[in-house]
Hints:
By secondary structure, this protein is an alpha+beta fold. It is 24% helix and 35% strand. It has three helices and eight strands, in the order ααββββββαββ. The strands form two sheets. It has a five-stranded antiparallel beta sheet with strand order 6-4-3-7-8, with no helix packed on it. The longest helix is centred in the first third of the chain and has 28 residues, at 2-29.
Amino acid sequence: MSGQYFKIKAAIVSLYLALVVGTVLWVFLGMPNELVMDFKAELNSVPGDYGGRPVVVVANRGNSNWQNVRVIVDELCVYTAPGLSASDQLNLPLDAFVNIYTTPRDWNRPPFARLSHAEQLLSSACPLSQVSSIELRCDQGQLKSNVSSQ
């Protein structure tokens, strides 16, 4: 009887360890998600006709539509769109972006609580004249790219 009890106990411990190892691998290697696997984007900045300011180009090169699209330039300016169709692209002058600090937020939460009242009342216009990084975030994935205006 004790031999059978030991086998059952060993099987339960082995199953538990297999679940722990599987969970750790799943977390660190990433869970399979076919939408993320099809996430193909192209981010670039090209010279524009808007007072010499560049135009940010975001292209969906995948086969699936993107939902809740946010394009962030130099971690300072943001553009939002409800979606972007497959094989479509956005050509965004910097005038289409708004200063990220003027979007509604809870000013009592870090890091915004450290800002003075004057800093909270920034202009909503994007103050940039050059682009050094573009970040794309949507429900299907995210991508960050360092670019240079040509």
